[in-house]
Amino acid sequence: MNYFDHAATTPMRPEVLEAMTPYLLEQYGNPSSIHGIGRTARAALDASRRTLATWIGATSNEIVFTSGGTESDNYALFGAAYANQHKGKHLITTKVEHHAVLHAMEQLEREGFDVTYLDVDATGAVTLESVRSALRDDTILVSVMYGNNEVGTLQPIAEIGALLADHQAYFHTDAVQALGTETIDVKALGVDLLSASAHKINGPKGIGFLFMKTGVKLATRSFGGQQERKRRAGTENVPGAVGFQQAAELAKIERAERVNTYQQMAEALFGRLDELGVEYDVNGANRLPHIVNLYLPGIELEPFLIMMDMRGFAISSGSACTAGSIEPSHVLTAMFGTSERTKQSVRISFGHGNSVEDVERLAERLSEVVSTFTNGVR
């Protein structure tokens, strides 16, 4: 299988599994225990927290371990809304967020909060002016994703952070898709809350973190023990944290090389499609380097993906969270309205294990399958 769906999840690196194994088999202590094996687990957890904090320009006490991006998003949104509703009940987000944000916002609306959903342009980007226009005195939270998981478009996070510097609203960004290819410094960005997940950077599933700036007040979402400085109850996932640390260290070392390689892959994809005479257009602009979303006029999306799969190439229609749904992508709908483009676009995402040669073969299979629709030979 030629795997080109790294935006959905990534294969775990052998180095990550190797780092985790001792904490699965030998050093299995509870990090809250005071005996030696517990202290060993605590030391590993603390080391992971320091590494991840340094990676994004934070301090270790600003990192709260979670089960992944969805929990981090939920904790940020519900926590900020509940803890600060005495200051106002207005929230701002965009129409192209991950469902972990959009569905949380919809629930908050049902609970009496007022949510403004910002439009995006045809590239999938919000404007700074739209955020400024939406801001009110009673706005308590703004949530804008760093880079889109379907089309890759980057948002003006640092500019929004500067805009909000003198406003009471907390600023949250879902950086799950951007972590690993973008250089992220939470201070330079001006964010108060940032979500991340290990399985997007060749780490294990089931572990993520929420950056929570010192001084930020969130309502607790789980009750039990006093783990994570009383911010998230429950025994910490030590093997997962160790795996996240190892994946982060590899991603940091390899970032520049990865970005350059992904750019070469995108150029190879476009070049080969052009040589083969395939009609296509690219959705999104100013994109994350590993995501390419292609509009392929005339295809039928689900049969197209199945036919590519049968030829040994795994690509997707966008967010894995909507797999099996016949509804058009909410991201493409926000960008293009009810255009057929929303039903005739595929996402290709590069990652560890892919080569330029693989990408050229992918282009050839894409051309082959597109022709079965455009030439009516299916």
Short description:
This protein is an alpha/beta fold.
Features:
378 residues, 2 domains, single chain, alpha/beta, 12 helices, Aspartate Aminotransferase, domain 1, 7-stranded mixed β-sheet, 3-stranded antiparallel β-sheet, Aspartate Aminotransferase, domain 2
Furnish the topology, listing elements before pairings.
Blueprint: E1 2-3, H1 14-25, H2 36-55, E2 63-66, H3 69-84, E3 90-94, H4 99-110, E4 114-118, H5 128-134, E5 139-143, H6 157-163, E6 170-174, H7 186-189, E7 193-197, E8 208-212, H8 227-230, H9 238-275, E9 281-283, E10 291-295, H10 301-310, E11 313-314, H11 330-336, E12 345-349, H12 356-374
Parallel strand pairs: 1-11, 3-4, 3-5, 5-6, 6-7
Antiparallel strand pairs: 2-8, 7-8, 9-10, 10-12
Helix pairs in contact: 1-9, 2-9, 3-4, 9-12
Strand count: 12
Mean pLDDT: 95
Number of domains: 2
Structural class: alpha/beta
Description:
The chain folds into two domains: 2-8 and 254-374, Alpha-Beta Complex (Aspartate Aminotransferase, domain 1), CATH 3.90.1150; 14-250, 3-Layer(aba) Sandwich (Aspartate Aminotransferase, domain 2). α2 packs parallel to α9, α3 runs parallel beside α4 and α9 (238-275) crosses α12. It has 378 residues and is of the alpha/beta class. The protein has a seven-stranded mixed β-sheet, with helices on both faces. Strands 9-10-12 form a three-stranded antiparallel β-sheet, with no helix packed on it. The chain has a two-stranded parallel sheet with strand order 1-11. β9 and β10 (291-295) form a beta hairpin. 41% of the residues lie in helices and 13% in strands. The longest helix has 38 residues, at 238-275.
